[in-house]
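FAQ: What does a multi-protein file look like?

Like this. Sequence, then tokens, then the next protein.
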Amino acid sequence: MIVELISVGTELLLGNIVNTNAAYLAEKCALLGLSMYHQSVVGDNEERLAETIKTAAGRSDVVILSGGLGPTKDDLTKEVAAKVMGYELVEDAHTKARIEEYFKNSQFKIITDNNWKQALIPEGAIVVDNKNGTAPGLIMEKDGKSVILLPGPPNELVPMFEQDIFPYLNKLQPEIICSAMVKICGLGESYVETQIADLIENQTNPTIAPYAKTGEVHLRITAKAGDEKEAKKLIKPVVKELRNRFGSNIYTTDESKTLEEAIVDLLLEKQLTLTTAESCTGGMLAARLTNVPGVSEVFKQGLVTYSNRAKRKLLDVKKNTLKDCGAVSDKTAKEMAKNGAFITGSDICVSVTGIAGPDGGTEEKPVGLVYMACSYNNKVTVKEFHFKGERSKVRESSVVNALTLVRECILADDAKQ
């Protein structure tokens, strides 16, 4: 089946907001095995929107529109789509009651007349309840085509798609689509792709699709079959083969699990405590970790020692080390980690110090140079990195690699025992 996306909103054309909905929907449609050849962005203009919908419906089996379902006059998506599809708008008592209930339980108690515009639906359309807003989702079916309307705010669109639209689209498919995700850290995208080149070249069903993330590589394995059990049976040997090839670099096969969650799970399992000592990342590493529920059981302290004075005062980095080697050096990183573990009484301390830029670099120590160290079990492991990109990318790369370093040190110590 062929699907097409239409994102509605003049603010998207002007670049006032980033179109995250299109990226999300495209990924989910690919997961469903739907073919996508076109995406469009159109402003809040009746004539141009109608033309875009007609074109999309003429060449695709499913058209998904996001945005333009609000209560204001420039919210035209429902009205225009209904007109193109030949549907009359009628008031839906169920949706009206839901809007009343929504306002009753919100801080905005007064319902203005234009809110009732959202209770009008194309007669005969499937209404999808919006559990996070007032605009319902809508599905119009005609002549073998499906036109799906979704609200624009991501906090409304995403749960609606997950709970209602994804199952609807899956049922339209002649085959069940299943997938698994293998998440890898500590290896580069080009290396991973080289290691699975033979699998990709010979793939039919299931297929493997690599996705590069900052400091990580994700591999999605997707299979088509008559039922879910058969699809999972096809996926299982591929995941096993990837485990054989990448071993401990695979930190999870749970699609929803993040690297920091995997680290926290490992710390909990081993009953280890962790401290972070950060310079160029300014607390980003601690922030990633403290996003994980239950981390308080293992996370002792986060130290942000941005200045040399802070490094000396809080982490007891030697004055001569900072003078002779500099704040950005392997020796400073080592002292930050070793002393951080001792001072806070943690089993592990990971440190990060570097030059994030855009200024401050030299020929000897360029922007992107980062040292990190991990102190664990009376041993300090130090690594040197040369990251590319703007300041935010250098800092983000530093955080991911620091998390990976903690994991590597724990697993390496386990392997010795």
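And here is the next protein:
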Amino acid sequence: MTQEEVLNNARTCLGPYCKGCPVCNGRACKNIMPGPGSKGEGDTAIRNYEKWREIRVQMDTLCENRPVDTSLEIFGKTFAYPVFAGPVGAVNLHYGDKYDDAAYNDILVRACADNGIAAFTGDGTNPEVMRAATAAIGKAKGMGVPTVKPWNAETVAEKMEMVRKSGAFAVAMDIDAAGLPFLKNLTPPAGSKTVEELAEIIQAAGVPFIVKGVMTAKGALKAKKAGAAAIVVSNHGGRVLDQCPATAEVLPEIADAVGGSMKILVDGGIRNGSDVFKALALGADGVLIARPFVTAVYGGAEEGVAELVNRIGGQLKDTMAMCGAHSLAEITRDMVRKF
């Protein structure tokens, strides 16, 4: 399938929030809630996308002509590209009733694994969401990352038991989900965690733990102190707080603070292989991309996911070749230019 075919198909079945735009930049959905928009004016989601555009790559083909290796090794697994599908929950509410979370994750997890990457899966107030997500990861021989919301200790423990049974190679918690409107005043409760509370969760997890939702160097150091193996520099796609900086703006200072001591992933407005290259140049080890994978599944199921993965991977490989980087380790900060 082509990207155009995937988008055309997706527009026939997406719900009222996502428009299936050729480029997912936050402008069409803006502040529509609870869909793919944002709080307030939708400022942060739009800023995420635009700040990657302000970074330019430095072309340099005066170098040895060698094959380009885009593979990433993390937590004992090797992936074809430093790209992961981001977690999305309640897809039937946010994106259309063609799929529920169980069907969506079954397609996404399997298709990502088949194409050399892994998917993060979402969580929700319905326990079946995590149950179905971990079942899909189990069928993919653990090639996925369940993302648990910051529930109370008892609920987190119950969900972690599902994670362990799935054989997942890592687990994540989207700490920034504490700002989602639908999590407020819930039973069970959900919300922010102290370093001490997070440390207890991480210690009990039994697999590498990823803290998603870090936006400051101070926050990264707190995640490190709690024992996290990795962080995701993320503002929840710009949905949880208006007037935040973009992830591209804070990534370099976070990488300077904890780079080399833990893995750093980043999401928010990353839409092509050049963006992936920019993120790695600024200090990330890999990236998460969420909304375009939703469109890919709705518009083409497994074929749609394959089209997206291979397109972004091909763009990354081409950018690396044109900038003189033949492996991810050779991508350096001087290969991008910020204005």
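Q: Is there any per-entry metadata?
A: Some entries carry free-text notes. For the entry above: The two ends are 37 Å apart (CA to CA).
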